[in-house]
Amino acid sequence: MIDLGLLFDVDGPLASPVSRTIRIESIRRDLVTLAAAGVPIAFITGRSDAFVREFVVGPLFDDGLAAALATPGARMFGVFEKGGSWAPITAEGMGDVTVDPTVALPDSIVADIRRLIETEYADTTFFDETKRAMISVEQRTDVPSAVYKEAQARFDQQAFEIIAAAGLGIRLGDREVQDAAGLVPFRIDPTIISTDIESVALDKDRGAQRALEYFAELGPLPHVWRSVGDSRSDYLMADYLHREGFDTGHLDVRPSDGVLERDYPIITIGDDIHDEATAKFLTHWVEKVARTVD
After folding, report:
1. Strand 5-8, strand 266-267: pairing
2. Is the separation of the CB atoms in 68 and 31 below 8 Å?
3. 77: nearest Cα among 98, 101, 59, 103
4. Regarding beta strands 41-44 and 175-177, do their DSSP bridges make them parallel or antiparallel, or are they unpaired?
5. Dist. CA 109–CA 122, nearest whole Å
6. Phi, psi of 11 (to 5 degrees)
7. pLDDT at residue 246 above 70?
8. How far apart are CA 234 and CA 167, in angstroms?
9. pLDDT tens, 28-76?
10. Which site in 37, 90, 251, 262 is 20 to 30 Å from 72, CA atoms measured?
11. C-alpha radius of gyration, the chain, whole number
12. Phi, psi torsion values for 183, nearest 5 degrees
């Protein structure tokens, strides 16, 4: 068994930001191969469990994941909504989802944001009804990025005003309003295809910790870990691994946003970005597994 563990963001590194699916066959095949080789794999994403079940786990099962996870030592885990919910992934499929009730937004705010999308932004955006602990509104796939970006900027400001008017502490970029206790428990986080409204307690380092705790319950942890992401917040997965003393590296599949300085290696794959960079990264590790077996 190879000394390796992998943590993946989903959008960008695995699922194409255009199609929102794992369109590169080698990614699916190589993930199955690595799982069968005993590499613990976690998907740590802002996406919902429903999205991961349909667009990640389902296609991987079509490519043989059930048999791979039936192999002794195989481990896979999903952390959704940046740590707001999570579930094991086994040979039987995705297990029961656990939701952290302490990080959810009030139902009234959810209803207000849903109404805003339906009345003013339905031509560019849709409300993600599958989220359990956070609010996500996402770019429609038939809308050009430039059109969406203009609408997103207006929506973000309106959402900030709605939440602040309700008396909740909220942050958007450099703007923030505190609640009655002087706290700012929620933030608005724009991405390239969506805006998330979430608890400040949620982030990728929390998800990484959750995944490793699960893996440790099933067996010894590898010493070598690699995380893969396309945004600056994805570095938090590697930050957690590095703090815990693991041999850590982070693959940045969208370095044009600015590669962060860290005390562990930051990996880029030439001019390749998004899922094409991940495909080459996974091929490298599958070839290493093959050499180890030989």
Report:
1. unpaired
2. no
3. 98
4. unpaired
5. 18
6. -70, 125
7. yes
8. 30
9. 999 999 999 999 999 999 999 999 999 999 999 999 999 999 999 999 9
10. 251
11. 19
12. -110, 160
